[in-house]
Amino acid sequence: MWLGRAGIGKAYTGAVKKRQYLVAVLITLFGWGGTQGQAPEAWEIGPFTRPATGNPILGPRPASTFSDPILHGPVHWEALHAFNPAAIVRNGHVFVLYRAEDDTGAMEIGGHTSRLGLAESADGFSFTRMPEPVFFPGNDAQKPREWPGGVEDPRLVEAPDGTYVLTYTQWNRVTYSVGIATSPDLLHWTKCGPAFGSSGKYADLKYKSAGIVTQVADGRLIAARIGGRFWMYWGEGAVHLATSSDLVHWKPVEDAAGAPIEVLRPRAGHFDSSFPEVGPPPILTKAGIVVLYNGKNAEQSGDPKLGANAYAAGEALFEGRDPARLLEQPAAPVLEPEMPYEKTGQYAAGTTFAEGLVLFHGQWFLYYGCADSFVAVVTAKR
What we know:
The protein has 382 residues and is mainly beta. Helices cover 8% and strands 37% of the residues.
């Protein structure tokens, strides 16, 4: 998602640090840190709980530099914002792949260049970051799609053979699409191009936000086959479906008229009244496919308790053997902007933009973007 105002840099980081002690005290005294809403359904993941201290876990680092292969010089690649993370468990650690915006370009929505940084944690809360991005626009076949806007909003899954498959937004400041990339180790990446190909009826489609269906196997989330195929929920405005035999080349599921089917739509009066947008990779469970998604609240016909244009995270349940069949969609979100770091940043309306979900140490860890400026985490019992 492209949201926000002028960049923040050091001022927001310092302000948030000064508020951490106060936030921790309020959590202790008044029970802040949980999530609001009705009691969860039996199939839902949650309720989620914020840690008493430590959030946000990642923020901008103005001092970080990177020698950009296109500009042929150093750039402060995570100077303004660090947000919207993917997550995966590898070798007993949590790895977060996060979107970082530099301080180049215009101070406006979509005006900076985004690259993806990598951070590692042994406990899921405290992270060590790599000094340079691991995924970025370069002088390759995808440059026309990725420059100068960059690579944005990753989602990450592990394939049955152990390969990591990344879905991300390619943004050249004119159009955008979902890109696919693969890696054996999260460090070295092969770009595979747009998910729906660079020719044919979907070559010029503007589309983003794609989560590949997973299932729990050997204690980790692995891409799942349903009816012999892999499935992917994608899109904002409305959520659609696509299938693949190899996790790289995808085909939208179409209706009788040849248009992509819509499986989730906006709901007036709810947190997703403006539109729903796919969150982290969905999970195939005994109850069905649990789709965590992000909803934008409408200005006029939205949930008055949430605030206009705020982003909150909700869940929907789809039939396990028929990923297009919606079974349940609770009215309330499972995570919404409440804390200062979720409302203070380049997107003042507030976001809890969920993109990374892992099963780690016997519980769920959900990593999300805050106000298009920071990364935070919440947990839930399995």
